[in-house]
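Final report, Chapter 2: Outcomes

The project's central promise was a pipeline that accepts a single protein chain and returns its three-dimensional structure in a standardized token representation, suitable for archiving and comparison. That pipeline is now operational. To close this chapter, we reproduce one record exactly as it appears in the project archive, with the input sequence first and the structure output second.
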Amino acid sequence: MINAILIDDELNALKNLKWEIEHFCPNIKIIDSFVDPVEAISAINYLKPDCVFLDIEMPEMDGFQLLNKLSYRNFDLIITTAYDNYAIKAFRAHAIDYLLKPIDSDDLKSAVSKITANKQKNVLGFELKKVLQSISPPTAHRKIGLPMAGRIVYKNPETIVYCKSDGNYSEVYFADGNVEVVTLKLKEVEELIEHSDFFRVHNSYLINIRHISEYVRTDGPYLIMSNKKDIPISRTKKNDLLQRLER
């Protein structure tokens, strides 16, 4: 028996996948399913499934982010998605199976048969480890969902100049001059963005390194950003920031 966890932010898609598995894959035991990727991370690390069915295109945390946050990765991965895009092509190149929605029962059975063979050979998770070591998602096209009052706004991280703490909220300053207040603490915004170009220069400021116009040594030091705003640098962050800028 293969123990599986299902993850999809769309409840109907999750129900459909359950139905397909229950009717066409008797050797798959669904041990849990999630619409919340954060809850799924804890469950995978704790339950240690043989297989994970993962929707790669989720707004609050995409499949790449979820996989990179896991401490347990000894499982085979089957991607479920409605889009045959860059991520699918990358996984396909590394022999990771994927299922296009709506899921075809024959494709499902074919993917599951490979997992059965891998479990018998004791090589579960082998391809997943290889793919995570060798590829990363192109950030230029990845959008993040910023929760605001009564809505979620999807933005490319590259359009963000910097974020400023405002207690339990954060102000997000964009390159086009817009400023939005999100219902997250700055630490939560940092975790959500999870982008190599962002750096916490101060307890109250998270900046996009690509939007730095000047580094001013006097009176601080401080940064002048592309939107002409001055951002202080804490003494504990100064050396780390300079090292990042040198790279």
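Archive annotation: Confidence is low (pLDDT under 50) at residues 137-141.
This record, like all others produced under the grant, will remain available to the consortium after the project formally closes.
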